[in-house]
Structure formats: structure tokens, C-alpha cells
Amino acid sequence: MTNDDEHWLDRAVADGCKRVAADFAGTFSAETVARYVDDSRARWADARVTTYLPIMIERLARQRLRDLAKLEGDAMSDVPEVLFVCVHNAGRSQMAAALLDHHAQGRVQVRSAGSNPADQVNPAAVAAMDEMGVDMSKEFPKPLTDEVVQAADVVVTMGCGDACPVFPGKRYLDWELTDPAGRSVDEVRAIRDEIDARVRDLLAELEGVPGRS
Description:
The protein is α/β, with parallel strands linked by helices. The protein has helices at about 5-25, 30-40, 55-70, 90-105, 125-130, 145-150, 185-205, and strands spanning about 80-85, 110-115, 155-160, 170-175. The protein starts with a helix and ends in a 7-residue tail after the last helix.
């Protein structure tokens, strides 16, 4: 990254920090917001593509601060929260989160993250989801943080081993699914359909409705 690129990124992140601080005024101090913005930036220190990095940093900081507010009791909600976790947050967890969000229509708060996030979402996964009318083109892989795990009611892991921290009081599920990395859209469709079936069952369970027989 050149000095000009670094200065551009500094300015863009600073502008985003001001927006986040304004939105969380009365909940968190400007210093707390700045700390979370800086830490979120550090998690992408090795990012090779910086074009959308300020937006990614701002969105991650907002998500983490919302989770922190929930943990501290400043943002109570009766809506259950589900977190999907895989290694790269580029395929399985992204599709699962998008499908649950699509089917739940706001009745469930949905998040996804990766223990070692990739640079971008798998294009084959994006294409397969687009066939169902679910747009993932603006999604990006997000790093796994303690706040997002602690804020979730249900944590669904997908091949990330012991990388996901375990906290008391959370429900953990482990879904064994084929990794779509390096596979064609035709191959990803089958993975998508299996995830969709599991997601529908999970949603039915969360809403107290019998699942598929």
C-alpha cells in the first residue's frame, strides 16, 4: 500500500468513525467507538483489496457495538439471534445466513463470520443464491469476534473445528456440509439446497413449528 493509499484509508476510516460515534451517542463514548473501529481495522491489516475496506471496517464496528450493547443490556430484543460460522465466511455460512434472513423476514436476527475470513465471498455461492432471488453480491467475509458469539442465542458451526469460542448458555450446532470452495455453480447448488433444508428446519424449531418429517 502506498503512502497516498494509506492516507486515503486513514481519512475514510476516520469519517466512518465519526458516523458510528454519532449513531451510538448516548450508548458508547467516542473513545469506545474509536477503539472498536481501530480494532476492526486491524483485523483486515493484511487485506489485499482496499477499495471497499472503509465500508467493511465501519460495518464490522457497528455490528460489534450493537452486540456489545445487547450484552450490556442497552439493546434488548425478543428476536432470537443466530450466528453461522465457517472457516472463510465465504460460502457455507454466508449462504446459511442469507437463506435464514430471507425466510425469517425479520423474525430472526442473523449473523455470519469466519475463523479465517477470505478476501471475498465465493462467486459460485453468490451465483447459486442469485438463482433463488437472494442477493449476496454486497456481502463480505467477516472475522469472528467474541462479541458476536456472546450476543448469539444459537451458534451454527460448519467445519471450523475448535476455532469458535464456547460460552455458557449458548446453543451450539455443528452442520457437516461440503465446502463449496473451488466448486462449480452446479456443484454449489446441491450444497445450497441442503443448507436451505437445514435452515428451514432451524427456523421452524425457533418458531415452535414442527419441522420436516
